[in-house]
């Protein structure tokens, strides 16, 4: 097997671990991949891959390639006898700016690259890759395409920050500590700006009129705005951290 890997340049460096080229006869027909804090995009230039994910009884074929978001369950990946492809190993948060849908919608559900970027785009990109003069030119083409497709993603900075905190603690982090790392709401300051003399009265009246604690309200609103970016109810920022 020939394997060529390289790290991307900024601005992709903060989203991607490496770009790679793979060609040859794999030493195994199938590979079981465990849950992992990474996402993968592969553009296939040979015979189809076969992937069995989740509760699927039989593997499905992926001719043009595949996109796999950070999996929470093991899945089975099958190479053809002779394989040729280029791919991307994303950081846990890195795939989101290249998708037209929330990455969470693809959780444990591999899709073809065509389903993500469209048939015409993928056909043209695969043609350019197939006629490139070697692995390094292929990786340059792929990096250029990713740079062209890079877009702003709401909330990505927070996800990147909290993911880094989890990684630094090797997962041994209490939910309360993670909430602090993500940016706690200063309820005393918020009560004062709302015209209350103390936090207790603010919390009592807020719960009386909304049926929620202030903390629960902020959680619900944050989740709603993540799921409905640009909604008319997004009339201003949440309380400052």
Description:
The chain has 241 residues and is α+β, with helices and mostly antiparallel strands. It has 8 helices and 9 strands. The chain has helices at 113-117, 119-130, 135-149, 156-168, 175-182, 187-193, 199-210, 214-227, and strands at 2-6, 16-24, 30-33, 39-44, 49-53, 60-62, 65-68, 75-78, 83-90. Strands 1-2-9-4-7 form a 5-stranded antiparallel β-sheet. Strands 3-8-5-6 form a 4-stranded antiparallel β-sheet, with no helix packed on it. A hairpin with a 6-residue loop joins strand 5 and strand 6.
How can the largest sheet be summarized? 5 strands, antiparallel
Strand percent estimate: 15-25%
Mean pLDDT: 81
The tally of beta strands, per DSSP, is 9
Overall CATH class of the largest domain:
Mainly Beta
Sequence stretches where pLDDT stays below 50 over 5 or more residues: none
Instruction: Give the CA-based shape.
Output: elongated
CATH superfamily descriptor of the largest domain: Jelly Rolls
User: Which strand order does the major sheet show?
Assistant: 1-2-9-4-7
CATH architecture group name of the largest domain: Sandwich
Number of helices: 8
Number of domains: 2
Distance between the termini: 50 Å
The CATH topology of the largest domain turns out to be Jelly Rolls
Task: Decide which structural class fits the backbone.
Answer: alpha+beta
Our Rg estimate from Cα atoms comes to 22 Å
